[in-house]
């Protein structure tokens, strides 16, 4: 029993695995909706209204929730997540991310806790989609940490090692140029520690194992 996700701009786009029984979730960016299509017949099973520019769809491991990141359009940046409870096939909440705009990549961590990247603020958030609460992982004071249920400090970009993909599609690594304040760790290490504290091993204990895991996931999604 599987559910799949697909992002569509007018006609089609990327495919990735996801949620329930023989159903394809299709995000329609220009129509600001999400369709649920029966994989066998191709018939539309349900339609949900989202925010402007639904960009990514992620499904919890228990297949209870499908979450849509509303990226926005050229005129207006989006800052919300649409949460759909799949068993009842209804939108149960819209989570406002405040000043953290352009939500993009998402991945469920443990339970119903969802990691969300926001391009507009270069932040990594952790959202409990079941409760509708936001945990902010930020290196600076801002609008979201001020209103988040929990705010956790993490190291700034120039204080960590990492990598990015350039315009040519090549992965480039970088090293820290300054040391983070005592007790402040990179966001990935903070998330791993949160997982262990909650009794869930996320499968990585260092930057090398994290990069391998991300590479494996990216390859599996292709």
CATH topology of the largest domain: Methylamine Dehydrogenase, Chain H
Number of strands: 16
CATH architectural label of the largest domain? 7 Propeller
**How many helices?**
3
State the order of secondary-structure elements, H for helix, E for strand.
EEEEEEEEEEEEEHEEEHH
Walk me through the structure:
With 222 residues, the protein is mainly beta. It folds into two domains: 1-153, Methylamine Dehydrogenase, Chain H (7 Propeller); 154-217, no CATH class. It is 14% helix and 42% strand. The chain is built from three helices and 16 strands. The strands form four sheets. A five-stranded mixed sheet has the order 2-1-3-4-5, with no helix packed on it. The protein is globular, with a radius of gyration of 18 Å. The two termini are 20 Å apart. The model is unreliable at 8-20 (pLDDT under 50).
Summarize the structure.
With 222 residues, this protein is mainly beta. The chain is 14% helix and 42% strand.
Main attributes?
single chain; Methylamine Dehydrogenase, Chain H; five-stranded mixed sheet; 3 helices; 2 domains; mainly beta; 222 residues; 14% helix
Question: What's the topology here?
Answer:
Elements: E1 3-8, E2 15-17, E3 23-28, E4 33-38, E5 44-49, E6 54-59, E7 65-72, E8 77-85, E9 90-96, E10 103-108, E11 113-118, E12 123-128, E13 133-138, H1 143-147, E14 150-153, E15 162-165, E16 171-174, H2 187-197, H3 207-221
Parallel strand pairs: 1-3, 13-14
Antiparallel strand pairs: 1-2, 3-4, 4-5, 6-7, 7-8, 8-9, 10-11, 11-12, 12-13, 15-16
């Amino acid at each position: 029993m599987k559910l799949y996700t697909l992002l569509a701009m007018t006609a089609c786009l990327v495919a990735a695995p996801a949620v329930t029984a023989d159903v394809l979730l299709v995000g329609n960016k220009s129509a600001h909706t999400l369709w649920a299509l029966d994989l066998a017949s191709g018939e539309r099973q349900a339609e949900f209204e989202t925010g402007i520019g639904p960009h990514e769809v992620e499904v919890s491991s228990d297949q209870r929730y499908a979450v849509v990141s509303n990226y926005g359009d050229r005129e207006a940046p989006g800052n919300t997540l649409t949460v759909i409870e799949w068993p009842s096939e209804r939108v149960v909440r819209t989570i406002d991310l405040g000043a953290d705009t352009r939500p993009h990549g998402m991945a469920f961590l443990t339970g119903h806790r969802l990691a969300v990247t926001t391009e507009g603020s270069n932040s990594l958030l952790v959202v409990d989609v079941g409760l509708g609460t936001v945990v902010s992982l930020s290196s600076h004071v801002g609008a979201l940490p001020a209103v988040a249920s929990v705010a956790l400090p993490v190291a700034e970009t120039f204080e960590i090692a990492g990598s990015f993909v350039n315009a040519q599609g090549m992965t480039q690594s970088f090293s820290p140029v300054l040391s983070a304040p005592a007790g402040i760790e990179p966001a990935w290490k903070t998330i791993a520690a949160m997982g262990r504290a909650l009794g869930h091993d996320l499968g990585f204990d260092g930057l090398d194992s994290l990069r391998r895991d991300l590479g494996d996931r990216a390859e599996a999604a292709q």
